[in-house]
Tetratricopeptide repeat protein (Thiorhodococcus minor), 143 residues
Amino acid sequence: MKEAKKLLLNHKTGCIADCYSGDLNHAWYVLGDICYKLRDFDCAVHSFRKALSEEPNDVHAMWGLGNSYSELSQPKKAAKWFGKALEIEPLNPSITYNYANCLFDLREYKVAIDLYRSIPPGASEFTLARKNMRKARKLLSLR
């Protein structure tokens, strides 16, 4: 991973290496993904933002940005990006689940419950969504 990061990024300029500049959106996204997997979340945020500057409707970059902000314990920023991604792909259960989790962390339990409920039974997130929905209902009843 670290070697791939070195290959993609020109460390003198902070830009994508010339040989990968043909598709800057993709190159920045790949770098963001590498940084995320290396747990360098600040680098991931920077890279996903650069990917979005090249292609503003890149759902995967929005999703990566949301995940990175979640890892940085910034649920409000994460929710913003998951929400934007969900506007483009409203039926994506993974984005829905991640967005609901951010809202759960922000104590917006009613909206989180509605989102968890919308995840279809066949989705890999279904069981966890139901579990989190029960937790949110319990916390909501304690208010």
Summary: Helices lie at 2-8, 24-37, 41-54, 59-71, 75-88, 93-105, 109-117, 126-141. Residues 61 and 100 are 18 Å apart (CA to CA). The chain has a mean pLDDT of 92. The longest helix spans residues 126-141.
